Amino acid sequence: MGAGISFGQVSHTYRPPRGRPVLALDGVSLDVGEREFVALLGPSGCGKSTLLYLLGGFLPCEAGSISVGGHPVTGPGPDRGVVFQNFALFPWKTVRQNVLYGLEKQRLPKAEREKRAQELIDLVHLSGFEDSYPSQLSGGMKQRVAIARTLAIDPQTLLMDEPFGALDAQTRTLMHEELLAIMRRTPKTVVFVTHDVREAVYLADRVAVMTARPGRVKEIVDTHPSNGSRADFIHTREYTDKVDYLWNLVRDEAIRAQEERD
Amino acid sequence: MSNDVASVAPPAPQAERRVAKLRLNSDNFVIRYLPLVLLAILWEIAPRVHIVDPSELPPLSAVAKAWVGLLMDGDLWTNGTSSFFNWFFGLGGAIIIGVPLGVTMARFAVVEDIASPVVKALYPMPKSALIPVMILWLGLGAGSKIASIGMSCLLPVILSAYNGARGVDHTLIWSARSCGANERDVLWEVVLPSALPEILAGIRNAVAISFIVLVASELLVGQRGLGYLISFLGEGGVYDAMFAVVVTVSALGFFADRAYLYFMRRTLVWRE
Amino acid sequence: MERINSQWRRKLLRSSSVILLAVAWEWGARMHFVSDFLLPSLSSVLVRLFDDLVSGDLLIGLGLTLVRTFAGFSMAAVAGVVIGVTIARFRLVRWFFDPVVSVGNPCPKIAFLPIFILWFGVFDWSKIAMVAFSSVFPVVVATWAATENVDKYLIWSAQSLGVSRRALLWQIVLPSAMPEVFTGLQIALPISLIVVIICEMTMGGEGLGGSMMTSMRFADSPGVFSGIVAIAIVGSILVKLMEIVRRRLLVWHQESA
User: Fold this and answer.
1) Among A85, A90, A84, which residue's Cα sits nearest to residue A135?
2) What is the Cα B272 distance to its own chain's centre?
């Protein structure tokens, strides 16, 4: 249950209330297949998050076209679930209430909502914390609640904006494995923004490298493990080669992004 | 308050440290408020032994006695209810108007464009300066006092509601939209709960202001109210009763703040 | 293109809002929608303000009010900072002042005005004492919090560089606490002004508050309104002054960047 995504010559200009407008994206074209996991990789400021927000319908697409499953994107919707780096949990709601939020919007009968919410809380290994508030949870736990809340409404597409960026390295590694396990159970189309090359290669089927601002697609690299199994992928030569290759692509852009800032 | 400079000093000898901890441990309710008890004792003794002039500072027991007298006479009650009436409607009006106004200013550009310059222009003005205008317009009675209190509290409430609603994390709104929320849902289910801590903090501020303006307006004009009573007793030379009412007003302000804090903590239980 | 148009529209709406209000005030008063008494026209208020300025009445009143404000404020500032620092520094002092500040803060200190009149008479000292009493609290609270919460890593770095106790206080702790202390002063100054005005209104006599009450008693509404305008202007000038002083004093602070 996924949907194909198509970006056609997407451009975006960022207009701050004070100051000059800045071209964030310049003619980005990219196709994401159904149930494909694509990572957007690039230096800070390259517009990868902006592209994600356009796909999510949070920003209006003024130039170019974005369509999901053949339909153009007009605004946010439950077909495109989103997970943010800062978790974006409602702090005044408990874990259970957070997960239930999307389900309530879908007007499911109460018993079914509760059942589904509990399933998801169990899926992300947070059973027992249903009545805790986000302020009582660790970073990794908060992100798991965010993922549970998004998955609860069963979106066809998952948009992830550096979701593990705020977590420490160990938690991040554990979350990678959890995410892959979830994706094996319920495959979706995933667009995953990151600046971490290793993370991109480990998780994604393909990695789209973006240039420094204004962002364009520099190159798309296939990162399927050739023997089909991700379990040992990280120990293979193939993995390291891919990481090196991508890092070299990103490195130039990262330097360029630094220079622009100074 | 654990980053206290004294705590990074070299450790004192064992015995001294233990005594120091016992004596000044502020977790103990009695020890924490002991200074006030000592001050109360001082208040009783100093006038009696003429360290201070008892006609200028009656001993605490005389003040307490006068307080009971006022209570029995009903003066405290009639003036108290009059003050309460003014305070309640003044502060209540400010909250009922201010919170929706502040939130709509934050959410709807049109409202902000119209209201914000007016708000910004009025902000630096000491609101108590409006009291004479209110008296001019509404007379010497309750109306001018309610209006004075309302006007003085309105701005802080509007500002905190505005800032609270503006400061909503946009990723919260986006997450809600992705869960299928519409504009109305976003306002009631995301913006308002998110702004609530700041709104409640602004209202706490407004409560303190309301007391000040209430007393000030009652000291100025009128025939009723606790402020009036203080002034009346002072002019009449009945100083022990005057002190009694001053203490009463102060206590009311203190307990109102504490009660509000308790309510605030209960409501915002999700904050850690 | 549309975005730019709407930005201009908003700018226009904002700046015209106050002008429109002023125009509406003037027009409404001239049309006598409400009696002249309730709402004198903006022009008559401004004329009155100008007259008072020229005759010197305004300056006298302004001067008195400001003198009282600054007298009380400076007392509160000095006392407040000293108390605040010693509270943070000495456990015994903290023990004593903690409940006093915590209980005293939410009390409406203006209720003490008749007591101060009893103690200090009906002239300036009671007003100044009232101002100092009201304004000292925010200064104490801000200084206490600022001094106590100085970044301990800053202190540890200084100590490992071998700084003496005294130097630690004056060279590390106080400068570090300055921004927050100054914020406390910025809160206290408008309080000082308000309290002076209220005292003057209650006790009469000269001063901006006093002359406003006199106008009110004589049903001289242009006088009342011109008083408000004068006070509003003074209020905003004081606030702006504090901001300028802050920028100068705290040049190093990242907020000023």
Assistant:
1) A90
2) 24
Amino acid symbol at C235: G
* Listed residue (B147, B146, B155, B143) closest to B95, CA to CA: B155
Contact B133 C224 (CB under 8 A): yes
pLDDT in tens, B103-151: 999 998 888 888 887 787 777 677 888 899 898 888 888 999 999 999 9
Instruction: Give the 3-state secondary structure percentages of chain A, helix then strand then coil, rounded to 5.
Output: 40, 25, 35
Q: Which domains does chain A have, with CATH numbers?
A: 1-73+194-262 (3.40.50.300)
Counting one residue from A and one from B, how many pairs have CB atoms under 8 Å apart?
67
Q: Tell me the per-residue pLDDT of A56-97, one tens digit each, with 9 for 90 and over.
A: 999 999 999 999 988 999 999 999 999 999 999 999 999 999
Is C28 near chain B, with CB under 8 Å?
no
pLDDT of C176 higher than 50: yes
ipTM of the complex model: 0.91
Cis peptide before C179 (omega within 30 of 0): no
Q: Are B264 and B256 a contacting pair, CB within 8 Å?
A: no
Which residue ranges make up each domain of chain B? 68-267
Please give the average per-residue pLDDT across C129-158, as a whole number: 92
From B193's Cα to the closest Cα of chain C, the distance in A is 26
Q: What is the CATH number of domain B68-267?
A: 1.10.3720.10
What's C40-256's CATH class?
mainly alpha
The SS3 call for residue A259 is helix
Q: Does C98 touch chain B (CB under 8 A)?
A: yes
What the block records as the tokens of C158 is 């200084």
